[in-house]
Amino acid sequence: MHELSIAHELVNIADEAARKAGATRVTRVHLRLGALSGVVKDSLLFGYGMATQGTLLDGSELVVNELPVVIYCDSPTCQREIELQGTQSFRCPACGQPAAKLVQGKELQIESIEIDEE
Question: Per-residue pLDDT for 102 more than 90?
Fold first, then answer.
């Protein structure tokens, strides 16, 4: 389960940022998680609980903002960003052309942390 090692790294990053901000406790961590990140949300949430033990994040909540796959279609008829309904086909649902560019979907990023200060 690689989600546990990812959870440990997220906790390390958030813990370091919280300490630099003078926090006594982290209450929430907000995470952006793309559909193509390769991370299973439920496994990450489980691992997060274990990884936070004994840190400033102990007892904090991991809030996961799941992001869909968004492509850019550069077909002359489209020229726009389009959200895909699944990850089976990377073709524009409007015109059928292969995706020119992946705009969103691979994210694994801490968006923000909520802290208590002394």
Answer: yes
Amino acid at site 47 = G
Structural contact between residues 70 and 34, judged by C-beta atoms closer than 8 angstroms: no
Total domains, the chain: 1
| Cβ neighbours for 4, distance < 8 A, ≥ 6 positions apart | 43, 47, 50, 51
Measured on CA atoms in the order 16, 17, 19, 24, is the torsion positive or negative? negative
- CB of 58 closer than 8 Å to CB of 29: no
Q: Is the pLDDT of residue 9 over 90?
A: yes
Q: In CATH, what number is assigned to the domain containing residue 15?
A: 3.30.2320.50
Predicted confidence at residue 18, as pLDDT, reads 94
Q: Tell me which residue range forms the domain holding 57.
A: 2-68+105-117
Q: What Cα–Cα distance (Å) separates residue 115 from each residue in 22, 64, 84, 93?
A: 9, 17, 35, 42
76-88 residue pLDDT tens: 999 999 999 888 8
